[in-house]
Amino acid sequence: MNPLNRIWAKSASPGQSWGELLTEHLDATLTALDLLRHRVGRIAAVPDRFWTWAALACLFHDAGKIPEGFQRMVGNPRPAQVWGLRHEIYSLGFVDHVLAHLDEDERQWIALGVLTHHRPLSGGARSIRKQKGSLRTPQAVTDAFGPVDEQTANALTAWLAQRCYAPVPKPVTATDLGKATHRLLTTVLDHWAEESPDNEAGLHAVLLQGAVTLADHVASAHTTLLTDHPLDAEYPERLRKRLTNQGATLFPHQEAAARASGHLLLRAPTGKGKTEASLLWALTQIDQVRATTGGQPRLFYTLPYLASINAMADRLGEELDDPERQSIGVTHSKAADYHLRRAINDDHDETEPLEHATRAVAKANASRLFRELVRVTTPYQLMRAALAGPAHSSTLIDSVNSVFVFDELHAYDTHRLGIILAMTGMWARLGGRIGVVSATLPDALAELIEKTLGEPLAEVAPDSGQAWPRRHRLHLDETHLTSTESIAAITEQLVQGNSVLVVANNVADAQNIYDTLAPTARELYGDDGAILLHARFRAKDRGEIERRILERYGTNQKHHPGLVVATQVVEVSLDLDFDILHTSAAPLEALIQRFGRVNRLNGRDQSAPVVVHRPDYAPRARGGGDEYADKVYAAEPTRLGWDILIRHDGDPLDERLFTDWLNEVYTSPWGQRWRSDVERVRTEFTRRFLTFDPPFDDRSDLAAAFDQMFDGAEGILAEDLEAYREALDQGRDPQTRKAARLLASGYLISLPDHARRLGRWDKEFGLIVIDADYTEEKGLGALNRDDRTSYVMGEVL
Questions:
Q1: CA 597, 603, 608 angle in degrees (round to 5)?
Q2: Whole-prediction pTM value?
Q3: How far apart are CA 149 and CA 134, in angstroms?
Q4: Which residue range or ranges hold the HD Cas3-type domain (predicted)?
């Protein structure tokens, strides 16, 4: 019997008696790497032999699993026993022995890919360098990893040599492997002792780590990487036929986008085909990148909000003739929830929720393993590549030679914008094409993008002679949105049969306005005549509220009168169409997004009223400090926007002028400070995260901080803890436990970061537990007493 037929790489799956063979897993990893290589293609920024090193690292990455200690750890034989050593270290002995014919430099690169596919090289108790402390001599290595069956070791060296067309290796003993392991491990750790050997080596190393890690994960999950692009040469013709059937043609700016080569800035108003234009541009870039690299470029369509991502995934499914979304991935922190909602909404049988959840988790996991060539995501998911390491370097290699569409970049958040710009610079360096699509983008931001990318943007916009829509008529109101006068005006408009959207800057104002207006709206138009939406609902309740709003006020729905009171979550998250808007003043970008929820398709007989109310300006803290509009938005850009709006009070709004308005704000003294802040963040982020020097420090501690920066905090009501526990308890194995966690996540509430100090931390669930009033209609209300925290009684988060 071939001794390799009894060596496992993985434990047996539940219900199985036999684990996956080591040779099968190594072959599968090599196959996955080959798929990745064909996807990514030639990488200009790395040495010519990069993919050869990656392939050999994949072939050898788990060779160190032959020791008896590892086999016992995976239950071969049972019972499983703890081992405590890192198999990737022992794999180096096989690299050094079988690949002895290669140059020392090449063996070091291959060893680096092997050594870093699970653990960081340096930093912390989990690092490879830490374990090296107990392996000071070749004999220590032999003793620690023994016993090793030498017949099996020689069978593996012969198999590895045959698979990589190496010369037949000499017979090897356990002592030989110990010496080879110690020598190569010491060499690699010395070579990467303090910093990268040169300016480019750190980037090469992280990309190599990402290639090996990605291939290993794909092989371990027994999945694959799709190779047929859903955005193909047939798309333009399908689009033209569809428009012809509707009595329309492509807009000139869509034709121009299709012809553009290189990075793009597309400015076009809502309803003028920005999505189609971006896809036509992306197809051209995909063809060009494919021609120069031999790869199959990925398309990342990024949006800033989760709900808008979900809607865009559905939209792309229609555009790319993939209604089941089999080739379109959704990657964000709530991707599984998106798949679950779609499954439940489409369900016409008695499928159990846990079964739906299991399928949703599987689909989200496939996207997390980079399966699809088209993915809809947030910029922040892609920015995890900066964290590198075994957990995130795969994201970096997957983004090489890719095409990126940024659908709306928000300028006023300097910190996030600076990080996004830093990442776009890295993606361009790695062969990527960047497209920015916006109805309104200030010239100052366009200049920053060009400076970051190091080359001009192809700027595309509707012809100067083409009229932009005048969907809205502006009205300024000096009274606050919550004032008696404002409430009276909104009530009158409801009585007249209008659909009215009211957008407050904070949750407390939204709830107060809703309490006042809802009885009238419900008396006039039934239970759904008044709906409240903000970020402080349980996830499952918010999903239901969004569904009700879309069914009643969605762009393509029959007109219904009624009231929706919301916060800024409504700005770009839902495709809605109201008759009238009342909103608190905010920075111009936010206001323009809110305007877009009214008369969305310009189908009304006259411009729709958008009423902007002066906000209250006050410091957030009792002790003073900077002023904020309704304690949310910085006062200075909000006031600058208000001063511009004063000049247009009573006018129908020409949307072509919105960019000019923003230019005025961003060339002001405040705008100069904004630019300096963005450039500072971009430069600092590049220095700290994107030089990859040293490339293999443990950055896992930064992952939580990164999540907090972009996702905020999640909490749960004290009253929901038992239901949450019961939902989790439905999981009986690894697969259903993930599904149960997805179902349980319906009880979670998105919280502002400062809420961490307003509740207690539950170690069992890893959540903030808050004691507060809550209803499905109004969401999170006043916080109740908790002696262990300090806050304002009755404060609404």
A1: 55
A2: 0.89
A3: 22
A4: 15-218
Q: Name the residue with tokens 């790869």.
A: 295
Inform me whether the pLDDT recorded for 463 exceeds 70.
Answer: yes
End-to-end CA distance of the chain: 67
pLDDT tens across 405-416, in order? 999 887 868 998
* CATH 3.40.50.300 at 235-460, yes or no: yes
Residues 6+ apart with CB under 8 A from 202: 195, 196, 691, 692, 693, 694, 695
Structure tokens at 369: 């393993």
CA-closest candidate to residue 691, choices 456, 445, 400, 429: 429
Measured N-to-C along each axis, helices 389-399 and 700-711 cross at an angle, to the nearest 10 degrees, of: 60
Q: Which of 562, 558, 579, 560 is nearest to 471 (CA)?
A: 579
Helix intervals (H) in 648-777? 658-666, 669-689, 700-711, 721-728, 734-744
Amino acid symbol at 289: V
> Percentage of the chain surpassing pLDDT 70?
89
**Domain spanning 472-653 has what CATH number?**
3.40.50.300
Q: What is the DSSP string of 419-445?
A: HHHHHHHHHHHTT-EEEEEES---HHH
Count H helices and E strands in the chain, helices first: 31, 22
Taking 50 as the threshold, does the pLDDT of residue 167 lie above it?
A: yes
Query: Residue 345's CB: how many other CB atoms inside 10 A?
Result: 9
Q: Confirm if 403 and 435 have CB atoms less than 8 A apart.
A: yes
- 628-655: b or e for each residue (b if 16 or more CB lie within 10 Å)? bbbbbbbbbbbbbbbebbeeeeeeebeb
Q: If we measure between CA atoms, which residue out of 710, 703, 722 comes closest to residue 762? A: 722
| CA atoms of 586 and 638, how far apart (whole Å) | 5
Predicted confidence (pLDDT) per residue in 544-589, tens digit: 999 999 999 998 899 999 999 999 988 766 789 999 999 999 999 9
Omega before residue 694 within 30° of 0, cis: yes
Judged by DSSP in three states, 414 sits in helix
Q: Say yes or no: do domains 235-460 and 472-653 share a fold.
A: yes
Taking alpha carbons only, the member of 400, 405, 408 closest to residue 428 is 400
With residue 550 as reference, give the H or E element that holds it. helix 539-553
pLDDT in tens, 214-244: 999 999 989 999 999 999 999 999 999 999 9
Between CA 42 and CA 46 the distance in angstroms is 9
Q: What SS3 state is found at 598?
A: strand
* Residue-range domain boundaries for the chain: 3-220, 235-460, 472-653, 712-783
Q: What is the CATH number of domain 3-220?
A: 1.10.3210.30
Structure tokens at 161: 């040599």
